[in-house]
Amino acid sequence: MSLDKAAVAKVANLARIRIEEKDLEPMAAELNNILGWVEQLSEVDTENVEPMTSVADMRMRWRADVVTDGGYVEDIVANAPGHEDGFFAVPKVIE
User: Are residues 5 and 24 in contact, defined by beta-carbon separation less than 8 angstroms?
Assistant: First the structure.
């Protein structure tokens, strides 16, 4: 896959990034270099590799699924600028 100046300009527009005309060509080259590295990574054989969640071999710690906290509604909403019936009150926003 290769990107040209027009594709870079379109992506920049979609991402709301302003790129000067003189910088489009170098940006296209840089993005094409990155895409080349990604294509190179797809060549790696991962057929017999187990999925990992970390580079260190770890086991997840399990705990009992019990409620250990709660009942502090008044303490929590006391910090809010406005609250009503135990909920935060915010101004109505209408466009």
Answer: yes
Tell whether the torsion through CA atoms of 46, 47, 53 and 55 is positive or negative: negative
Q: CA-CA distance, 90 to 75, in Å (whole number)?
A: 18
Task: Name residue 18's amino acid.
Answer: R
- Asked if residues 6 and 14 have their Cβ atoms less than 8 Å apart, the reply is no
Contacts of 24 (CB under 8 A, 6+ apart): 5, 8, 9
Tell whether the torsion through CA atoms of 26, 31, 36 and 41 is positive or negative: positive
Looking at residue 27, the DSSP 8-state letter turns out to be H
pLDDT tens column, 41-69:
989 998 998 888 788 887 878 888 888 77
pTM of the predicted protein model: 0.50
